[in-house]
Amino acid sequence: MREAEFDHAFAAGLEGSPDLRVWLLAGGRFARYALTARLMREEQAAARKAAHWWRHWWCTMPDGSQGETDIFAVFEDPVGGRFAIHVENKPPHGVLGFAQAAAYRRRAAFKANDSRWLDYRDFETILLAPAAFLEANGECLRQFDRGISYEEVAAFVPLFTMFPKEGA
Questions:
Q1: What dihedral do alpha carbons 45, 68, 59, 72 form, nearest 10°?
Q2: I need a labelling partner for 58 at 20 to 30 A (CA). Which of 84, 87, 103, 142 fits?
Q3: In which order are the strands placed within the sheet that holds 122-129?
Q4: Is 115 inside a domain boundary?
Q5: Is residue 124 part of a domain?
Q6: DSSP secondary structure, 80-102, as one string
Q7: Structure confidence at residue 164 as a pLDDT band (50, 70, 90)
Q8: Burial of 123 (0-12, 13-18, 19+ CB in 10 A)
Q9: 167 assigned to some structural domain
Q10: Are 86 and 123 spatial neighbours (Cβ–Cβ below 8 Å)?
Q11: Looking at residue 163, what is its pLDDT?
Q12: Which UniProt keywords are given for this protein, alphabetically ordered (predicted)?
């Protein structure tokens, strides 16, 4: 399977599965908003012309470097305001270099408080990959706020069931 297929399945799950959204938010920095935050899908779709609301959110950094977020999702909470989830997806055959991993947080911080990226105030960076990939890439994983495994996501998104949980 190609990375884009996993990206699409995860984003479709965010859009269509309240259970996935709650689980994702409850496990990280925005746990307090897990039950009340609204995915700003329509606003993201309206913010630019693209085939998918979550994909190809490129930016050019002040140093001239460029990069994108594989899956970019902005949420709004009535009390907490807007926050973003920046997901880097790496399938089993993927390669993640330290510089790419470290750039995720810098880009997320750069995009914050800017209307081009829906003016979010806070963010979380996530590495999404099979458990074995997360274990093998610990130094890169530490550049993200957290990692989530394909095996965990399988409970919400059927495509990810091709990676059974260990011991299952």
A1: 40
A2: 142
A3: 38-39, 71-77, 81-89, 122-129, 146-149
A4: yes
A5: yes
A6: TEEEEEEEEE--TT----HHHHH
A7: low
A8: buried
A9: no
A10: yes
A11: 66
A12: Plasmid
CB 96 within 8 A of CB 59: no
- CA–CA separation, 43 and 74 (whole Å): 9
In angstroms, rounded to a whole number, what is the distance separating the alpha carbons of residues 102 and 18?
30
Polymer length of the chain: 168
How many CB atoms lie under 10 A from the CB of residue 62?
7
What are the tokens at 123?
A: 């963010």
What 3 state SS string does 43-71 have? HHHHHCCCCCCCCCEEEECCCCCEEEECE
* Range of the structural domain that residue 55 is part of: 3-162
C-beta separation of 162 from 19 below 8 A: no
- pTM of the predicted protein model: 0.94
- Say if 143 falls within a structural domain: yes
**Could you give the angle at which helices 3-16 and 18-26 cross, rounded to 10 degrees?**
100
- Residue reference for tokens 């991993």: 101
Query: What tokens were used for 19?
Result: 């259970």
Location of structure tokens 């630019």: 48
Count: domains in the chain: 1
pLDDT tens, position by position, 64-119: 999 999 999 999 999 989 999 999 999 999 999 999 999 999 999 999 999 999 99
